[in-house]
Amino acid sequence: MYLSILIPLYNEANALPELNDWIHRSIRPFTESFEVIFIDDGSRDASWSELQRISEDHERVHTIRFMKNYGKSQALHAGFARARGKYVATMDADLQDSPEEIPLMIKRMETEQLDLISGWKKKRYDSYFMKNLPSKLFNWVARCTSGVKIHDFNCGLKVYKNEVVRAINVQGEMHRYLPVLAKNEGFDKIGEKPVKHSPRKYGKTKFGAERFLHGFLDLLTIWFFSRFGKRPMHFFGAFGLLMFIIGFMLTFWLGASKLYKVYRNIPEIRVTDNPWFYIALTAMIIGVILFVAGFLGELMLKTKTNEQNYIIREERSSKTDTLSYDQT
């Protein structure tokens, strides 16, 4: 298999027939060796009925249905596990991403020997103040924090080598940072291509303004894990040791000061009446807690397992589908 196209979706029944036809028209002239994997993320409309009809009428269509709405990251995780193509493309199901861009992106990947290439919606058909401006700020922070120099982290249109999607673990809402996750695994040949962006034709967006808050929090999580994910003791242990030393030095100073004044018969309040005693005690307790947190983090790393945290309700393949994996 040369190409796998993954399409996570939620309540996109109206767009699916047109999207499937568009994909086949765009990809067939480029390669006959491709598969399309639709992941229904617990849709409440007629999306699954449409996908059943599509899988019966078209070759190379594979459909997955979740028990409930788990989120885009889990949908991509399921798709990545089943993708057999040498290249794996992802795109949204709302007809705003053009499948015509995929062959161009693959050609550039092969020319420049890239591990993955991300789309850049340079001209967007969205509200400037509600989406475009926050998105620009979000992407600027992501570039500065991650070191990945692309303009549009949240663009759904991306193409990966198969070994990249096998290496990365998409959890929570980390689908926004797949290039960063890939870089953290050593796949640092990351490119970008401006792509066409179309106005939404059916339905409405599934993401509100809260996605930017979630995005920034996820970015902090990725920054932490990229630097200390494999050695949490280096972070918690260092700060814990620093806090403990500060508390210990304050305690030593209070004790030495008390003994000196007693020796010199200088009037002095009790140590427990001195506010610095409680500051020192708090610092030492915080230091011990941070050190224990680092130790527990190291212990969890030794015993962690890569668990699947979604339930597939139903899965279908077209009758002509095969399970071979061909690198040609």
What is the strand and helix layout of this fold?
Blueprint: E1 3-9, H1 16-27, E2 34-40, H2 47-57, E3 61-66, H3 72-82, E4 87-90, H4 101-112, E5 116-120, H5 128-146, E6 158-161, H6 162-167, H7 178-184, E7 190-194, H8 210-228, H9 232-263, H10 275-303, E8 312-317
Parallel strand pairs: 1-2, 1-4, 2-3, 5-7
Antiparallel strand pairs: 3-8, 4-6, 5-6
Helix pairs in contact: 5-8, 9-10
Could you please describe the fold and organization of this structure?
The protein has helices at 16-27, 47-57, 72-82, 101-112, 128-146, 162-167, 178-184, 210-228, 232-263, 275-303; strands spanning 3-9, 34-40, 61-66, 87-90, 116-120, 158-161, 190-194, 312-317. The chain is of the alpha/beta class. The protein folds into two domains: 3-228, Spore Coat Polysaccharide Biosynthesis Protein SpsA, Chain A; 232-303. An eight-stranded mixed beta sheet has the order 7-5-6-4-1-2-3-8, sandwiched between helices.
Short recap of the structure:
With 328 residues, the chain is of the alpha/beta class.
Radius of gyration, taken over Cα atoms and rounded to an integer in Å: 26 Å
CATH superfamily of the largest domain: Spore Coat Polysaccharide Biosynthesis Protein SpsA, Chain A
| Count of domain modules | 2
Low-confidence segments, given as residue ranges, are 321-328
How confident is the prediction overall: mean pLDDT? 85
* Shape summary: elongated
Q: What is the number of helical segments per DSSP (H or I, 4+ residues)?
A: 10
What percent strand?
A: 5-15%
Query: Residue share in helices?
Result: 40-55%
**Separation, N- and C-terminal Cα atoms:** 7 Å
Based on the coordinates given, report the CATH architecture of the largest domain: Alpha-Beta Complex
Major sheet strand order: 7-5-6-4-1-2-3-8
* CATH classification, class level of the largest domain: Alpha Beta
Number of strands: 8
CATH topology of the largest domain: Spore Coat Polysaccharide Biosynthesis Protein SpsA, Chain A
Structural class: alpha/beta
